[in-house]
Specification:
This protein has 342 residues and is α/β, with parallel strands linked by helices. The chain has two domains: 222 residues, TIM Barrel (Alpha-Beta Barrel), CATH 3.20.20; 66 residues, Antifreeze-like/N-acetylneuraminic acid synthase C-terminal domain (Type Iii Antifreeze Protein Isoform Hplc 12, Alpha-Beta Complex), CATH 3.90.1210. Helix content is 32%, strand content 14%. It is built from twelve helices and ten strands. 37% of the residues are buried.
Length: 342
């Protein structure tokens, strides 16, 4: 059974990525910090430089000059720096389970899936760049585990093909993530309005894999139906790291966990009218009251009848109908005005 959906608070995934900075101790500290911040899961990425690419110094293997984070870096060197060593996976998974959060990963080839199966991974995420690798999707989905598919850069046709590939090998628990695969991602290209479009098109839970700065975009996504939020996570952006510039620190992750749940709670229903929470407030709407002691036979004037709080008297709009009439009985200050009094 899926852990997330519109009937549950947003599921928070802390993406470690390469923010361990080459230290297993830091990786384990990130697990602890994610758990302390209230994350539901910690995610890593399972690859090596050799399973991702080849060590060739050619422009086609090089990130463009001027990239905000990785300008002119060669893919092999970047992946060598950022990868999570495979012998770290078990201690990371064990620490996460000890702390009560779910560990999982993005596999990038068959050997990664085989390793993760040995660790009894509970679910798999397909990274945006791998959405067209349908054999990898089929392999991960054939494990029978829930599948999360990220859609950065993908067309409608590619998204549909990826979901169909997973369904074709029996997957039923499929979640799709709206994503802008830019690092960091400009908010104006996040296009949160596509979340309900994806939900209608795929009839699947839709989440958000977000690479913008801060937590404003994830909170806003909940209003559009995002049921899972994935954000990169680090101990301290000042420590550096391949993804630290657009990662949340522990305090921000905790705030996102709290505020996305608050946003989800605020969705409520389509009901228009007083709510249970407003019951007390209804008592203090305005109505017409006697505001000075009067005797039978006195005339109703602006000095002895006004619209004040609370309710109990005639509606305020009756003021024009009562002015100039006479009281039929004595009434003390603070008496609700009723038709039998005039």
């Amino acid at each position: 059974m899926t852990k997330f959906g519109p009937d549950k608070r947003p599921y928070i995934v802390a993406e470690m990525s390469g923010n361990h900075n080459g230290s297993l101790d830091r990786a384990l500290a990130l697990v602890d910090a994610a758990a302390d911040a209230g994350a539901d899961a910690i995610k890593i990425q399972t690859y090596t430089a050799d399973t991702m690419t080849v060590d060739v110094k050619h422009p086609r293997f090089q990130i463009s000059k001027g990239h905000e984070l990785w300008s002119e870096a060669y893919l092999y060197d970047l992946y060598e720096r950022a990868h999570t060593p495979w012998d770290w996976h078990q201690p990371i998974f064990e620490r996460a389970r000890e702390r009560g959060i779910t560990p999982f990963s993005s596999p990038f080839d068959r050997t990664a899936v085989e390793l993760l199966e040995k660790l009894d991974a509970e679910l798999y995420k397909i990274a945006s760049s791998e959405i067209t690798d349908l054999p990898l999707i089929r392999l991960a989905a054939s494990t029978g585990k829930p599948i999360i598919i990220s859609t950065g850069m993908a067309s409608v046709k590619e998204i549909a093909a990826a979901v169909e590939a997973a369904e074709g090998v029996g997957a039923t628990d499929i979640t799709v993530l709206s994503c802008t695969a830019s690092y960091p991602a400009p908010p104006e290209f996040t296009n949160l309005r596509r979340i309900p479009v994806l939900a209608q098109m795929l009839e699947r839970p839709i989440g958000l894999s977000d690479h913008t700065h801060g937590i404003g975009v994830p909170i806003a996504s909940v209003a559009f139906g995002a049921c899972l939020i994935e954000k990169h996570f680090t101990m301290d952006r000042a420590d550096g790291g391949v993804d630290s510039a657009f990662s949340l620190d522990p305090a921000e992750l905790k705030a996102m966990r709290i505020e996305t749940e608050r946003a989800w709670q605020a969705l409520g229903t389509t009901h228009i009218g007083p709510t249970e929470a407003e019951k007390e407030g209804l008592r203090f709407r305005r109505s017409l009251y006697v505001v000075a002691d009067v005797k039978a036979g006195d005339q109703v004037t602006p000095e002895n009848v006004r619209s004040i709080r609370p309710t109990g008297g005639l509606e305020p709009d009756a003021i024009g109908l009562v002015m100039g009439r006479t009281f039929t009985a004595d009434a003390a200050k603070g008496t609700p005005l009723s038709w039998d009094l005039i």
